[in-house]
Amino acid sequence: MSSSQPYPLPAKTPLYCALEGKALLSTPTFNKGSAFTATERTTFALEGLLPSTIQTLDQQVQRAYGQYRACDSDIAKNAFLTSMKEQNEVLYYALLARNVKEMLPIVYTPTEGEAIGNYSRMFRRPDGCFLSVLEKGKVEGLLAGWGGEDEVDYIVVSDGEEILGIGDQGVGGIGISIAKLVLMTLCGGVCMLRTLPVILDCGTNNPDLLNDELYLGLRQPRVRGREYDDFVDSFVQAVRKLFPKATLHFEDFGLGNARRLLEKYRPEMACFNDDIQGTAVVTMATIIAAAWVAKVEVLDLRVLVYGAGTAGTGIADQFRDVVIEGGKSKVEAVKQIWLVDKQGLLLHSHSPTLTPAQMAYARADSDFVSVNTRDLTCIVRAVKPHVLIGTSTHPNAFAESTVKEMSTHVPRPIILPLSNPTRLHEARPSDVLAWTDGKALVATGSPFPPVTLGKTGKTYSIAECNNAIAFPGIGLGTVLSRADRISDKMLLAAIRRLAEHAPALKDPDAPLLPDVADVREVSKDVASAVIRCAVREGLARVAGIPKEEEEEGERELKMWVEMQMWEPEYRPLRKAGPEESSRAAKGELGVVRRA
Ligand SMILES: NC(=O)c1ccc[n+]([C@@H]2O[C@H](COP(=O)([O-])OP(=O)(O)OC[C@H]3O[C@@H](n4cnc5c(N)ncnc54)[C@H](O)[C@@H]3O)[C@@H](O)[C@H]2O)c1
Ligand SMILES: O=C(O)C[C@H](O)C(=O)O
Ligand SMILES: [Mn+2]
């Protein structure tokens, strides 16, 4: 299939809407509240339903910010923002866009984790698409209600089994699909009207939820095996049929399913697993920047991954592939990687309990006979890693002895405690920096405040090594190029481009990754790199992408990307009649049928 259609919702296009009066005011995609113009108030039967003053978006943001600040806890702020999203989406995104740094930890990691844990208690109004394993036959019909083939660009799906590091959250996992899409819109500029959050409710094995009389999901053990696979497949096939141009993003699936599903569907369609690939991209970019600061060759690094699950093995594979791309053999590359899991250092003798992804890195027992392979400090002494990565959900696993041991072998240890939310981090940056006298190069999965070292008085900003820095740019690139697949080379292009944005390249004391507040800007560039690579590989399915050979081609490509990014501002609202509705169904107008 090829498409020459431009992105259907350029920034300033009017929106057509068939609703009026109270129905319009309670539809968050169209509602402007006090900002409806005088003409719109007449056209859409809003007179008498609003106070007379017409406000600007800026005034609305100012008011909303005051209300936000009046909330007395992070979870109350999260609930406030959720209800704002349910009232007026443009205002919601405008408020976030003006306060990214302050509000991202509220709508995303770590506070969203708490909200997901309390989903059935905090529930007010549903958002997203709920598909139940008991109604497999209805999947396609239910998805069809979300739009035509040109109306959905980006879908995030979770089955709620492994949310962040907090485990099985059942139907509450819809919260992670929504949160990831908020970032896709805020930092990736994909219009929220064209995104779709999905939860596949397959039951839950979380006893607290099963025993909670207010739990909103299926109160039964998780469906496994054939029944599970068939259900997921009915969903994926319906997506491919109904939304053939959309990118499908898998989030927080369990260890037994995440990689399997990615490997199954990746050859067939544009799909992406954020925990495996998004995490690998952002972590690899961090490692490249850190190696530059430490003045060591990326290709020579020894990498120790603590927590060899979905994220950990994804990072290991990505590092291996970068080393192979640099000219080493696969056997040599694998020798630079060590995995540790609950058994300790993964060895051949553990094979019966290892996943295939772990197996690839298991070590010969004979090489470690004199090492206590269940003790991280002893492993570090034996392996002498340059890089220590935590993806274990094991809080404080990187003890002082471990970190100090590491710094006796390498001058600038690269230490990345990535487990989310904050309380699960393998170490706190303040400790790691204190234990190493500021020598360690640190980045974390959740946001941490800057650290000032007592000894030197020097202050270090801590980079957030969260896949949120990477997936919006990758997603924007695949959406705009309408990529057929997401190839390894596209991911590699994203890594290299992201690494170029590391503030540490200009100032070695600066963070290893761009700030979350800059991700939107960075995403334009990452998307451009992804699109360019998709074109080279023959995977792009859209005409009009500025050509590489042309002078100014790269600058034009970035402008082409920028022009198509959605921004939170009010569009003129026009009355939709039957003609507009039919054009909308063909994707020619920015009307949203689901509104
Ligand atoms: N920063 C990011 O962008 C990012 C991205 C993805 C995941 N994560 C975080 O990484 C963590 C793991 O996520 P996942 O999806 O890979 O989960 P997972 O369940 O697939 O993997 C976790 C692994 O850690 C192992 N483990 C558990 N306790 C351990 C211990 N005490 N010692 C050693 N290994 C132990 C488990 O056996 C498992 O193999 C979560 O906290 C998640 O939030 C962070
Ligand atoms: O959601 C995040 O904050 C990152 C990552 O996807 C995770 O599962 O922890
Ligand atoms: Mn995740």
From TrEMBL:
Q: How is the cofactor bound?
A: Divalent metal cations. Prefers magnesium or manganese.
What does the record give as cofactor? Mg(2+); Mn(2+)
- Show where the Malic enzyme NAD-binding domain sits: 276-535
Quote the InterPro entries the UniProt record gives.
Aminoacid_DH-like_N_sf, Malic_enzyme_CS, Malic_N_dom, Malic_N_dom_sf, Malic_NAD-bd, Malic_OxRdtase, NAD(P)-bd_dom_sf
The UniProt entry, under PROSITE patterns, shows: MALIC_ENZYMES (PS00331)
Q: Where does a divalent metal cation bind?
A: 251-252, 275
**Which residue windows does the record flag with biased composition (Basic and acidic residues)?**
572-586
Q: Which GO terms describe its biological process?
A: malate metabolic process
One GO cellular component term noted in the UniProt record for this chain: mitochondrion
Residues annotated as region Disordered?
A: 572-595
Q: Where does (S)-malate bind?
A: 420, 466
Locate the active site. Answer: 108, 180
Domain Malic enzyme N-terminal: where? 85-266
Question: GO molecular function terms here?
Answer: malate dehydrogenase (decarboxylating) (NAD+) activity; metal ion binding; NAD binding
Q: Which family, according to UniProt?
A: Belongs to the malic enzymes family.
Mind telling me which PANTHER family this protein's record contains? Answer: MALIC ENZYME-RELATED, NAD-DEPENDENT MALIC ENZYME, MITOCHONDRIAL
Output this protein's name: Malic enzyme
